[in-house]
Amino acid sequence: MITKAASAIRNLVRDTSGVAMTEFALAFPFILGVGLMGLETANRALIEMQVSQLAMQIADNGSRIGEAGVLEDRKIYEDDINDLFYGAHIQSGKGIDIFTHGRVIMSSLQVDKDTGEQYIHWQRCAGTLAHTSQYGTVDGARSDVAAGMGPADAKVMAFDEAAVIFVEIAYTYQPLIGDPFTFGEQDVSAIASYIVRDDRDLSGIYQRDTNAPDPVASCDQFGGSFYDL
After folding, report:
1. Which residue has the higher pLDDT, 73 or 18?
2. Is the pTM of this model over 0.85?
3. 99, 121, 123: which is closest to 110 by C-alpha?
4. Separation CA 102–CA 149 (nearest Å)
């Protein structure tokens, strides 16, 4: 009996059939963690790229919108702005949901005919995120945009009788997996600007029907794009 027990112990000691499984079990949490962190990092990079592209799209479309006339400069209307924001909502899709988790600020940077100063003539905003422009506001001092809008080393300026559409997006990143596999701040931002196409009526934004005015995407309101989002 003792001999059989000793033999069984020796066989067990020499048995290596479960070594690989043990090593895998020990390493699996680390491998899983690295994989999930890599997945989260890739998703963050994709979202940042999409937000940047969305800012360029909005700025580009903002520079093109307006109703062309034969005898007058192109006019823009409040419903043009609302349609533009709705298009941004469609473009962003449910993956980003830009107006639920972010804020889009579109500014018209122009030159004052009397003083030659750069100033923000109008701004329109959409999105629930409590964020104000970091580069200037309509009610802010003109000195804030005297050298243009944008980062200190990459400001853009408008020319006489023209305008620049400057778009800023602030977005709160929605983790795919979450802690502890995400890292850093969850704030994502992007800016873009385009010179206005054609000859635009720079006096302001019009209403098509003053008796039944379209909603104004005012920057003191925090909501969507006036559509069923």
Report:
1. 73
2. no
3. 121
4. 21
